[in-house]
Amino acid sequence: MPTNRMDAIQIEYCFQVDDAQDDRYLVTLDAATLTTLSTPPPDLPAWTILRTNQCPNCPLDPRVEAHCPAAVNMVHLVKRFDQLLSYDKTLVSVTTEERRVFSHTTVQRGICSLMGLLMATSQCPRTAFFKPMARFHLPFASTQETIWRATSTYLLAQYFRYGDGCTPDMTFEGLSTIYGEIQIVNKAFARRLRGACRQDSMVNAIILLDMFAKSMPTAIEASLAEIRELFVPYLRSSERS
Description:
The structure is a single chain. By secondary structure, the protein is α+β, with helices and mostly antiparallel strands. It has one domain (8-236). The protein is built from 7 helices and 4 strands. It has a 4-stranded antiparallel sheet, with helices on one face.
């Protein structure tokens, strides 16, 4: 169960599959950096080595960084949940300090949500954009909810960039670029996981993340007109001023 700590944020996933013992996974984040606070095993498996299926767009140098940060953040997850099958039905509960969310779903979708959280809060430079979204983690969000969260996060980032003297991007081109980079990461990470897992739940979870990343740029463009209607009071106010 998550505890109240000023220096940490805790998110607990619990998987209930049939009559088996509940599988619980606690994610503890540093409240300032939003990176996962966990101790990796002393002997990291070979599939975490940075040179092994390294992402083509990875900015890290294997001569400096021996292991993939996202893979290191995933070692405990793979070890704990690799025995579960993708399409097993499960009740997943996600507990934070603010609320508890339940979902009757499949193992792969539950792991997909947890895996996305762990990738976002790793030290991977390509997933850093998603750290603010991880801070306000919303498991099993719908496509529309995710579009709202991603675009809001991006625009808030542009506000802070503007305050720092940078030129803000109000076209979402940068957001599309971010999701394009994440697609490259997901594909490479799927190859990495295929060499690490016996069952298919982990690989299928990253494939689900990739499918979502592929659809996001188009979904954002298609949904903006619909979302615009929610802001009619603001638009009318600007017309009167």
